[in-house]
Model the fold of this input.
Amino acid sequence: MTCTSYSCQVTSSSRTAKSKPEPGPADAERARLTKSAVVDRALALADSDGLDALTIRKLATDLGVTPMALYWHFRSKEELLVGLVDRVWAEIDLDVDRSAPWPDQLRKLFESLLAVLRAHPAAPKLLLDFNKQTEASLRPMELTLEILRGGGFDPEHAAGIARYALWNGIMLVMSEPGSEWLSVEERVQGQRKKQITFAMLSPDAFPQLVECAVAMTTSDDPEFHYGLGVNLFIAGVEAIAAQGR
Done:
């Protein structure tokens, strides 16, 4: 067969088309699995089952893909955990009314931090063990420092209060009354045992503990716990400001 310029072009194009590999299963998985979707599901699993139970293989099974599809987005579990930390930081509402008094701005930001930590049981441990200096983590800190500097605090006090705000928020969530119990039944039984322990103390030696036995062991009103914690934090910062810091 004589090869004209046209027939050669057609033949060459046909061979190229036939030699182009078809998309494989891994390509299809990557196409439908976004990094955001991976983080969403990983955080949900960490919240429900705990960080220690979260593995690349378990996450892949839950998403219905192979582990290799996840390595396209995260090369290791550590990278995945840093991605979860970034998601936690990103959920904090930074939309603060900058025209409001600085204590109100600080309160709103602190309450938003608490809301995120409460929404994600895995968040306190994530921030304690896997927190990295990424843009997502630096934005809330930058805004906190800006609010405090605008309130008259020098750099040393502003930095100290900003750091304390994070640890105070984590402490409030981890110390929520009743959080150590997994079910309502366990909480009720545990609370009753603690109340009996306080009530059986000598009223002569521990009159206040006996009188406050129920209040010391109750876990029925978490909003009181968090409201008190926020008020104590803000009042303390305002007291430092009043000293001319």
In short: DSSP finds 14 helices and no strands in the chain. Residues 5-21, 23-31 have pLDDT under 50 and may be disordered.
